[in-house]
## 1
Amino acid sequence: GAGVSQSPSNKVTEKGKDVELRCDPISGHTALYWYRQSLGQGLEFLIYFQGNSAPDKSGLPSDRFSAERTGGSVSTLTIQRTQQEDSAVYLCASSLARQGPYEQYFGPGTRLTVT
Amino acid sequence: EDQVTQSPEALRLQEGESSSLNCSYTVSGLRGLFWYRQDPGKGPEFLFTLYSAGEEKEKERLKATLTKKESFLHITAPKPEDSATYLCAVRGYGQNFVFGPGTRLSVLP
């Protein structure tokens, strides 16, 4: 079956511009996560969605970052007034549920470069 | 605070030379320890979940084991196609996943 998809695969933007990154989770997966991976670094948790519950935003690095999930499926991560330190690979993952140690399945990521 | 460290940072092996990767963790109530493989330019690929100390899981040339403080990923007779970064993650009562920095494995033919 189809895996997690993300778009665009690459995004180059100028400092100060806003960007939107999209994630399509695996059908039937109710949990959706966003992570950031900087060069040579581990995955940094950003935000988590589970069904209709309020999202867990505890990992968002600043108020320039926001995310929404429409209809319990597609999610968009928005970064406003981008800075050079926002350059990284943004990964989306989905899993069956948050309860239980269900493994996550990742998309291919969006590589963001802020010039 | 849940934490994960991995060693070594990088490992070079000759084809057929078996070795182990280490993942050390501290977590408030382990609900699962996960191993992933990540190839360059791709998202992590799920390998194993371990739930309790003493548990072991195998897949082809890989075997993952778990104790109360660490997990090992044993690679037996590796092949060049096993070259990748291997990530370890834990999930505790805090619900979120905490990832280690990874071990970059290179298997030379």
Note: The CA atoms of residues 76 and 82 of chain A lie 16 Å apart.
## 2
Amino acid sequence: EDKVVQSPLSLVVHEGDTVTLNCSYEVTNFRSLLWYKQEKKAPTFLFMLTSSGIEKKSGRLSSILDKKELSSILNITATQTGDSAIYLCAVYRNNDMRFGAGTRLTVKP
Amino acid sequence: SAVISQKPSRDICQRGTSLTIQCQVDSQVTMMFWYRQQPGQSLTLIATANQGSEATYESGFVIDKFPISRPNLTFSTLTVSNMSPEDSSIYLCSVVEDVNTGELFFGEGSRLTVL
């Protein structure tokens, strides 16, 4: 059965810390892996990864895909309270998008 | 990127009633999905809304409970039928504009509370 597994499920850090969020997958017809940030209702797009070993970067956030290990990581450096959210990993297949359970990140002042 | 309008934004409903959620996209899109997010949980795919034909439902979701319409490439509705408190969730309409990348755009979501 196809699955997307994220770890940890929740994480509490202090401002300035660096965090690494993990996502592993076992799906058929893999096309891409996407990361989303969800603060209120609708998730907002962060990164889309299709090729192994190529880091995507946006400010303090970065992500990379390892297709051999069927996994991806999302790094956040110098965390801020505004980074507190649920981070969702999703795998795009031929016909749909499967989401992991999410990692709830809490950044304390 | 696609702009998706979803309504209602929120509603409080009585047990046993039904509610229809509308999703309007500002461009024609091939792939449109409906997700549910129960409190404290991640997104679960309910179904893929297919234009001009019956929706494709995921395991655990049935047409009688969640009828979906998609009359054209810019509009879809999801009805939550005979609601119970367990149906209290956020319901999200989403679309894929570029089938090569799979980037998913979301509507604002509809927060339903069933009393």
Note: The interface with chain A takes residues 31, 33, 35, 41-45, 48, 56, 90, 92, 94, 96, 100-109, 111 of chain B (CB under 8 Å).
## 3
Amino acid sequence: GAVVSQHPSRVICKSGTSVKIECRSLDFQATTMFWYRQFPKQSLMLMATSNEGSKATYEQGVEKDKFLINHASLTLSTLTVTSAHPEDSSFYICSANVIDEQFFGPGTRLTVL
Amino acid sequence: KQEVTQIPAALSVPEGENLVLNCSFTDSAIYNLQWFRQDPGKGLTSLLLIQSSQREQTSGRLNASLDKSSGRSTLYIAASQPGDSATYLCAVRPFVRGYALNFGKGTSLLVTP
């Protein structure tokens, strides 16, 4: 199957700082990538759809100014959590489609102190 | 809005048992359905993909069925092993291509030696 990587796998930061998470498609090109968030014991919830060369589409209730998404190339999308607060602590995971199947990255565990 | 429900939420079985995980969805207008496995703190591994026109898919000891009209899918695991212990997630993709997946909350499976 296709491989999606994420970096970093784990990050701990102080409240008020910004954190950037990278999502890369390693062996295929992805014009669209998806960013999900997963809280403990909960399922994955879509945050936004990242589109190469254009603005991201955010789900209802997700602040676009807080969660900045950039999809500058066909293999890289970045999610920046700006002015992070403890309630932003979560597991962030990205994915991309290859034809009809969706492949996920290993996820990034964000802890905001 | 598509709602995906997985039953049971948790399951503990002795090694060697055959088991069935259930997934139901409210909107039958789906493009496909995917079953994933998630280990603690890790990303998602795609297990099986069933297109809306298909009834079932098999991979090794795993068999997934789809009854689109009734909004149901089952994942059958034969001869369970301790290594099968993980959370199993069901996700449906809306009929319109390019859209992200709608996930259930998952079934947490523990297979005891």
Note: Chain B has a mean pLDDT of 94.
